Amino acid sequence: MSLTDIQIKKAKSGPKIIKLSDGGGLQLWITPDGAKRWRLAYRCAGKQKAIAIGVFPKVTLKQARNATIAAKAIIAAGRDPCLEKAAFIAAKAKSDTITFDVVAAELVAKKLREGRAHRTIAKLQWLIRLASPSLGSRPIAEIRAAEVLATLRTVETRGRYVTAQRLRSTIGEIFRYAIATARAEIDPSGALKGALTNTASIPRAAITEPLAFGGLLRAISGYGGAPETKAALELLALTFARPGELRSMEWAEVNLAKALWTVPPQKMKMRVEHQVPLAPRAIEILKEMKKISGNSKFIFPSFGKNDRCMSENTINGALRRMGFKQSEMCGHGFRSAASTLLNQSNQFHPDAIERQLAHVEKNVVKRIYDRAEHWDERVKLMDYWADLCAAMKRGDDLFSIATMGA
Question: Choosing from 79, 258, 305, 359, which is the catalytic residue?
């Protein structure tokens, strides 16, 4: 006779195990301690076996019957439900050790092997640390979109909307790596597109008007801080490299005899080697720096630490001390200034300017062609830019500046 919920609830324990049958091998074992445990008795490969299904009332009568049906389907397929349960428990225990932090660390290690820039790795690790308090110890296969969104909301509530967007992208990259390595099946971050606050992209602050840029160059010339900071500022203006590329510049990358700075791929944003022709004034600055930092591998070492390059805050900090607000000028702004003023000069092909800015052409064949086609022009461009900077620094009139090289 089948069991009923009322019968199960009223059943009392005794000094020995009491077994109540629901039919088909499903039994409710009532132990002396009062616990009511479901068991399924079955035969497999000629042997009598039993499998635990759960404890009443957490596992209801209906759920126990459904589990019995599922177990019998496994038996009918020639498999042992006990072995499958053991395998599931083992797999679950293993998956519990494959946490978000574990997969994130593997992704970081992979990027390090690929030679990603240290700055890129540092940013990735910083973003991972934002997610780690809530997601880090969670099995990655069990994390769902609601959990990810809650993590992102903690960043958003502090007004860091751009960071929240970047964090969503990073979390998605970690999940996609987990999927590729068979540790997860879904990327919950994909369901969150549009869920975060979007902010308009704010261009980096830059001075691009000739007379104002000349004032900036005069301020750099009169900078009273560390001489290596002053040299870095002037060289950044002359080369309009990315600040991270300049501050990590090494003596091994520079050939003073050929007036050439070769930035290796691992330091470049697009992972493509970049060559910078050096104007005479740039050579002078480097020769001056040789006296200061010649015993370090870095041209601009960190203060008191020759084994490290200049801090990423040094350039912008110097600009603030000179009186330029964050909304007026930043280290990256030298690139915008050079791009604007060189294009306005109408002296050079736009592609040559783009190549010198290290804006890489995606088409490989065209990129090789552009590199060969524009090299001589880029050498002239860098000399012209140095002369233009000198003219703006002197405060030459706008007409003289506009007609340089004409």
Answer: 359
